[in-house]
Amino acid sequence: MESHDSSRRSLFHAFAAVVAAAASPLGWAEISRAIDHAHAAGQIGTTGNTSFLTAAEAADVEAVAAQIIPSDDSPGAREAGVVHFIDRALATFLSQLAADYRTQLATFRSSYRERYPGTDSFASLTADQQIEHLRRTDQTPFFATTHLLTMLGMFTLPSYGGNRDSVGWKLIGFEDAHAFYPPFGYYDRAYPGFAAEPEIK
Amino acid sequence: MRSQTYRDSELVDFVIVGSGAAGGVIARELSQAGMTVVVLEQGPRISPQTRRHDELADWYLGGFTNDAVKNPQTFRNRADKQAAVQKFKPALWYGRAVGGASLHYTANFWRFHEIDFIERSVLGAIPNTGFADWPITYADLEPYYTKVEWEIGVSGLAGASPFDPPRTKPYPMPPLPVKSSGVLFERGARKLGWHPVPAPMAINSQPYRGRAACVHCGFCHGFACEVFAKASTLTTVIPEAEATGKCEVRPESYVFRIETNKQGRVTGASYFDRDRRERSQRARAVVVCANGAETPRLLLMSANSQFPNGLANSSGLVGKYLMFNSNTRALGVFEHELNEYKSVQVTRILHDFYDSDPKRGHYGGGGLDARIGPQPTTWAIRTATEGPPWGSAFKARLKEFPRSMQVACHGTSLPIESNNITLDPALKDAWGLPAIRATYEDHPDDLATARFLQDRGAEILEAAGALRVTKAPITAQTSSVHLLGTCRMGNSPATSVVDRYHRSHDVPNLFICDGSSLVTSGRGQPTMTIQALAFRAGEHIAHFAKRGEI
Question: Does A180 contact B at CB distance below 8 Å?
């Protein structure tokens, strides 16, 4: 439990570092406008081609994302197209993260090559090897950045390139609708109405 | 409808700096009283109906709030520490658009209680704090609380809470429909002998004053209401102000200095327009409603040879006594789905622990409410910091989203002089103006109160039959959306910045009304009180103007 807590804390701090790095040089308002432009131009696509990551980088990033939210009896980050979101984000509305991320990714690639000599692709490691290696590296800036981008790619609007077919929302049971009507859940179905308690004092 | 416009050179009765919860209300009150008014707002005028439930744009990329790059801030917990630049979300987060934070707030609208205004007299002094009574009482403010409920529009059930202060009218609308979190909260709290009640919310439960009823889409907290059911000043009092033909709301007008003359009176405000041209609007009086961070910053930036420590700052208290309200939560997972992502955040609250109780061994009290909090992306990011952060165990936790709720706990913050807003000596914003430097460290009693309230929240979840209850770690706060106390009200010019009518003690035609006016923090949910103060201030300031006393 103790070691688990410390890994949580470290991940949290790593998030903070990523988030701090994410700010420059574009202002968030500009980023927001860039997103709107990208929408208007229909640029945020879901094709197999990447625009920032190389094919080899994309394969590794996808493999890491797929360990963060694995595919099992339900779709995970792979099916959500998280890697396409990440590639798009780094090429456009989060381009200020791109240079740092490429460096972080290079460090990560060296780390598994060193541990598994002769390997040139994280994706080609067995699932157990991948998990074992991520346990050793899940407090690095690379992992924190990939984690944050995976969450954004899994759960934000599908129009940004991830969360394909809303698989992220389906996974957690979220429905995006303009309106809902009561009852909203199981426990408010048979609510008899509010009755005030007797006066206190 | 086209609203009035004025030239900079025209002498208007009032310039109001800021169009948020307070500025919007005062603009309406003054313009309806026949005054000519120009509202200068930093941010743009957005169209809420065009928003798209977009967590990425509106929450993660800044949306219509202050921008960490263009409006940077530094933060430290003590004055002897180096203040760190806040590069992502600023430490002090506020609305930067017409409507201010009333666009993206949660809209919890409970009133402060009688005790909040006289707590220092009742409890006695607290060493090393600025704990003080207000110069007004609950009774002074009651008519204006009622005015907020009827003019802004609040849904609720009068008489439900045995702890509620006296009121002169019921709410204009019945409470919003209860959610599963509200039912469970009520069930758990009643088992413990406590008094959960329907939450008062500034969200329409039925059509009201030309605005639609809530459609329960779930995007309140951090988002602008697309159907206008949540009451922002952008969709309530500001259109009413403009309809008088007396009021111009000028967006993207960033005030950097309040101008003064040799007589020590204000003469208007200088600002950058959207093209970053320096302009200056003349006015007979100025009302600053720029929020608890930007208001003291503007007064400090307005220093000149006549007012070397900043405008209205002979007490030295401009920017001091910053209060955030403590906040924490207990999380519960239940057997069946609640679907808390639907509808308004909060449908039940509880005030059994509102008052301070010496038996607890520390000062403080608070209110509890039932909610989930985040929408999907924030749920996922938060879940990663509160359990296994990746892999199948993480995925399993993510799936608990529809079966989860939290009890959110809102508590007191003591006013401490060393918690404050100052001008950063080095960092500038994109306009070349000094950045806000925030210094803040929770008082030990505030953290003890947070822990006490969180324990009660966890007990409610247990009593309601949660399968699992967890408590989020309680740590010192390093950010807030509640920006309170930095130009406090009071009777003495030596110990306060504004008087009981929000007139600055030092400058007779300068008024200040927003979160900065609060003397004590209340127990969270300050916007209702800020707006009651604004209705009261607007009425008095209009009287002063008519009597030639500005």
Answer: yes
